[in-house]
Design brief:
single chain, about 250 residues, two-stranded antiparallel sheet, two-stranded antiparallel ribbon, globular
Length: about 250
Amino acid sequence: MVAIKSFADWMQENSLLSSNSVYKYSRAVNTISNEMIEKGITTKNLFSMSSLQLDIFIPIILHNAEFIIKNKTGNNMYSNALKQYRLFRNVETIEQIDRAEIINVIEGFSLLKETERSALVTSRIGQGLFRRDLLKKYNNSCIVTGINEKKLLIASHIKPWAVCNNAERLSVENGLLLSPTFDKLFDCGLITFSNSEKIIISSQLSNEVINKLHISKNDTFNLKTSSELKLNLEYHRDIIFATQKREKAV
C-alpha cells in the first residue's frame, strides 16, 4: 500500500507546489478516497490501488456529480490532487498489463453497466494499438529529441486519457511520441506546442533547466499536425499547460 507520506514527499521533491498545497493535496486524495468508499462506489482505498485500477477509477470520480460540486467549491483542488497522485503512480506501461488483468479490474466496478465495462476493456486494450500507430506515424522516433529506441518512447495522449471518449483514447491524432523526460514535461503541462508546431515552455521551468534540456522557445518540431490534432493541442494549452511561476496554495 502506498503511504500518504510517500506521495507528499514526492510532490515536495518533484513539483513547485508550496508546502501548504502539498499538505492539502495529500489530505484531499485521502478524503476523496474515503468518501467514495462510503458512497459504495468502490471498496478499495486509492492508496492501495494499482496504476491500472487508478486509470479506471479516477475518471469515475471526476465525473461523479457530488465530486464535481465539491471540486468546484474547492477551486479544483480535488481534481488537481488526483492528477498529481496519478502522475506519482505513473510507473506502469500498457505492455505490462495483460487482457485478463484489465478485465478483472474493470469487472470489479459493480456500478458500471455491462456496456460501460465492455467499452472500457476495449479502450484500455486498444492503447497498445494507439502506441503502435504513433510509432508508425513518427517513424519510431521522439518528436523532440529524435531518440529512436522503442523501449524509451512513450505514446503520450495530448488530451488526457481520463477525460477522453473511447474514440479519442485510440486516435493517433490525440497523441505524440516522446522520450520519458519530454513525456513527463508534456504530461505535467511544463511544455506544450502551438498549432504551428512551435514548442511553448512554461514559466515554471528555470533558464538553467531549459538550457539543460537543450530546447528554446524558438524551436519547432514536426508534429504532423491535422485539424483534429490542433484541436487536441488547444485543449492541452487551455487545460493542462502551466504558466504560473508557482501555484497558489489552496
